[in-house]
Predict the structure.
Amino acid sequence: MQLKVLGSAGSVTPEGQTCSFLIGERTVFEMGSAASVLSTAEQRRVDDVFLTHAHLDHVKDLAFLAENVFGGRDAPVNVHGLPATLAVLANHILNGAVWPDFTALPSPETPTLRYAPIEPGRTIEAGGVRVTAIEVNHPGGCVAYVLDSGSGALVLCGDTGPTEALWEFVNQAGAKVRGIMIETSFPDRLRALADVSGHLTPALLAAELRKLDRPDIPVHIHHIKAPTRSETLAELAALGDERVRVLEPGTVLEF
Ligand SMILES: [Zn+2]
Ligand SMILES: [Zn+2]
């Protein structure tokens, strides 16, 4: 199976789109940029969307994808997320005030979107991939996803501060896990901001990777905040960890 990076930034600027990752043709993880990058025809092929949490940089393009696929599909798009994440969407974004409630349009019987609550630790199948959510440490509730194609697995961790269960899972899963995607939002000088907002800096990332028993595994970094991007990139390079690389739009990962 292939994962294609549509957007990998932590900020919206002319230079970068926020995170979205396309699996095959029918599944998208994170809705930071899917409607901005995929054609309308490509968006109409998406059957399942997985959200890590409700922050705007991770959900904003769901609003626009719903509008773009409206009337163009036979079945609703399943929107998978924690119950708390879906409640934020329903109450604060797709609420008929900020944006239409596409879970009831064009009719409640044949909606454009359908909420599909997930339960951490329980595996579901979507688009030929087995998907399992693992809770991570980020305000409001947030999950990472393990994507298992049968021949290999990828760990997709969006926003998180220091965490434990994720590394326990990867260590137990062994060689099946082919790669880890994880954030590094801020440079080390903004450590206090990272701590209060549940994010990582390069030094915090290095501490996380010391919990990992895999000296061989690629660690793909995303969600770098634009105003301090060059500083964060320099600190990531200075870690001297050959596993660490930065995800760019258009990159394809096989698993
Ligand atoms: Zn967040
Ligand atoms: Zn974010």
